[in-house]
């Protein structure tokens, strides 16, 4: 079992151009699905969309690569093993320019599978978008998964954990049933990943099961599956730039940009249930009309009240791609006594939390945010399998567990 989260896993989304923003990868139009997973040989599609901050035409193309369970490229496969049709040089043709927005942008969108390519093998997939007009310069990397549900995965979580009872943690229990899949050596043929709220940065990789049976595996008292419960995600909504909406204290126009000021985030000493999207975000405007090209970009101001620390504090959520980049780092303002940051965001609904990195770069929940066993979290499990003589890891089981209060 990997005790420290794999760096490759935490970088499954990368934006490599400052003009690219609002990258979204989802199963169909389900923006609350924290992991973009589709089922093999089904009608499911992965929708990928992003903005470029100009109205100039660029010929963007993308390539698709199959990856192993650790997101390394599957170098034992030919592209014909996993794609029917083209695997690279595929043009993005769905392009729309923003209309009557203060920040000009062009929205690019495409779906997989499509008329040029379809997927024929389960597993992890990396999509690389390049600018063909600029020597195929890489703009971004996005990932998705394709599952063939050959194995059954059962999940539950409890607050009576192996380290405390109804306190600050939650423990995941899991079972995997092989069904008709032949597994002769579970230690080498089966790889599992369990994560909280779709976060790859703290994923638990290949934890040792408590029981290995002829027809499956079981994790019942696995300490690697004990997670800090944290607190509910904070949230806000920027629907109208002319007046505040949910979670916004004030809005204004500074002559160049619209600004939105989130109510100051105070320490949370007690648990209060608040329905949230566990880090997911949705682009939309007040009319919920042509959201991709009519929505404004707004400078969004975050303010956090928490004791000063030597560790770095970051805003974290789906819109940050769970990446701890400088633009999401909070800065302590000694004149106000608060941590502050400003991020250019497209109109919509956002859920977020604050994360602190320790000296080893490991992400931890901020103490002033609180950690309560009642917190509603979702947990995801991925089960990969490589049969005898096979050349790659296939994704053969998936489960998504959410406790709806």
UniProtKB/TrEMBL annotation:
It comes from the Bacteria. Signal peptide: none annotated. InterPro entries: Ig-like_fold, Ig_E-set, T9SS_Plug_N. Residues 20-148 form the Type 9 secretion system plug protein N-terminal domain. This is DUF5103 domain-containing protein.
């Amino acid at each position: 079992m990997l005790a420290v989260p794999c760096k490759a896993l935490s970088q499954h989304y990368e934006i490599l151009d400052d003009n690219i923003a609002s990258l979204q990868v989802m199963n169909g139009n389900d923006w609350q699905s924290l992991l973009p997973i589709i089922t093999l040989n089904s009608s499911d599609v992965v929708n990928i969309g992003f903005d470029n901050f100009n109205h100039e035409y660029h010929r963007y193309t993308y390539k698709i690569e199959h990856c192993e369970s650790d997101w390394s490229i599957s170098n034992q496969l030919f592209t014909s093993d996993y794609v029917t049709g083209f695997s690279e040089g595929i043009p993005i043709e769905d392009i729309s320019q923003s209309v009557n927005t203060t920040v000009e942008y062009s929205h690019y969108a495409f779906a997989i599978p499509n008329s040029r390519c379809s997927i024929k093998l389960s597993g992890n997939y990396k999509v690389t978008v390049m600018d063909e007009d600029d020597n195929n310069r890489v703009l971004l990397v996005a990932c998705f998964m394709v599952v063939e549900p050959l194995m059954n995965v059962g999940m539950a979580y409890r607050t009576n954990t192996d380290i405390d009872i109804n306190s600050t943690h939650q423990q995941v229990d899991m079972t995997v049933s092989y069904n008709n899949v032949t597994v002769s050596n579970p230690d080498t043929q089966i790889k599992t990943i369990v994560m909280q709220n779709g976060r790859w940065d703290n994923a638990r990789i290949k934890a040792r099961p408590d029981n290995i049976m002829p027809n499956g595996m079981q994790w019942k008292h696995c300490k690697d599956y004990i997670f800090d419960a944290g607190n509910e995600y904070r949230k806000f909504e920027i629907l109208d730039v002319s007046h505040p909406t949910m979670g916004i204290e004030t809005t204004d126009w500074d002559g160049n940009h619209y600004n939105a000021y989130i109510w100051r985030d105070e320490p949370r000493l007690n648990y209060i249930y608040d329905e949230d999207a566990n880090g997911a975000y949705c682009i939309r405007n007040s009319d919920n009309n042509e959201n991709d090209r009519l929505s404004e970009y707004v400078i969004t101001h975050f303010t956090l009240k928490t004791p000063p620390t030597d560790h770095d504090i970051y805003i974290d959520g789906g819109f940050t791609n769970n990446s701890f980049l400088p633009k999401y780092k909070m800065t302590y303002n000694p004149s106000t006594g608060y941590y502050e940051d400003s991020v250019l965001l497209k109109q919509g609904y956002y859920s977020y939390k604050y994360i602190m990195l320790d000296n080893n770069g490991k992400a931890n929940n901020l103490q002033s945010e609180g950690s309560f066993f009642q917190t509603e979290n979702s947990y995801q499990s991925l089960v990969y399998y490589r049969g005898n003589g096979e050349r790659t890891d296939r994704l053969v089981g998936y489960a998504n567990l959410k406790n709806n209060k």
